[in-house]
């Protein structure tokens, strides 16, 4: 299974075991071989959990990665004018978390900034070498 969604209350909570971490129901699915789990950290509100999981499924069907689907579902929940503002407190939507393999997105601006930083570092090293020559270079 590529993804398990555990939307029941506190499926990501459990006993803290030294050297292992939190032993929870979600950990059991990981041990069983499921590499991606969406789990709940505290008592979940039925309405918001159902709303969020439906949106997650919708975004997964559109081809979004699991991490992006959960993120977008939470953003949609917060921006939906039909949802009572009282239900937009983090207690109602932040309990669902993703544990698993995230997808890295390498956008063009990030790549461009990385290349620019690399060039700046190389130029700085070059200028420092030119400005402060080693003793061997000064003797000649």
Protein traits:
single chain; 140 residues; mainly alpha; 6 helices; 5 strands; 50% helix; elongated
Q: Runs with pLDDT <50, length 5+? A: none
- Structural class determined from secondary elements: mainly alpha
Total helical segments: 6
Distance between the termini: 69 Å
Order of helices and strands: EEEHEHHHEHH
User: Mean pLDDT score, rounded?
Assistant: 83
Largest sheet, in brief, is: 3 strands, mixed
The helical percent reads: 40-55%
Structure in words:
The structure is a single chain. By secondary structure, the protein is mainly alpha-helical. 50% of the residues lie in helices and 11% in strands. It contains 6 helices and 5 strands; from the N terminus they run βββαβαααβαα. Helix 2 (46-61) packs across helix 3 (66-79). The radius of gyration is 24 Å and the shape is elongated.
Write the layout of secondary structure elements.
Layout: E1 4-5, E2 15-17, E3 21-23, H1 25-31, E4 37-40, H2 46-61, H3 66-79, H4 90-93, E5 96-99, H5 108-131, H6 135-139
Brief account:
The protein has helices spanning 25-31, 46-61, 66-79, 90-93, 108-131, 135-139; strands spanning 4-5, 15-17, 21-23, 37-40, 96-99. By secondary structure, it is mainly α.
């Amino acid at each position: 299974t590529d993804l398990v969604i555990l939307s029941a209350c506190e499926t990501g909570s459990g006993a803290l075991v030294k050297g292992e971490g939190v032993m929870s129901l979600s950990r059991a699915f990981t041990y069983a071989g499921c590499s991606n789990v969406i789990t709940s950290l505290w008592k979940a509100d039925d309405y918001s959990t159902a709303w969020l999981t439906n949106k997650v499924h919708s975004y997964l069907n559109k081809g979004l990665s699991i991490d992006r689907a959960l993120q977008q579902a939470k953003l949609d929940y917060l921006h939906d004018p039909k949802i009572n503002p009282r239900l937009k407190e983090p207690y109602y939507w932040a309990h669902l978390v993703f544990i698993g393999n995230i997808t890295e997105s390498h956008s063009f601006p990030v790549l461009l900034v990385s290349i620019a930083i690399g060039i700046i570092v190389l130029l700085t090293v070059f200028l420092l070498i030119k400005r402060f020559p080693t003793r061997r270079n000064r003797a000649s």
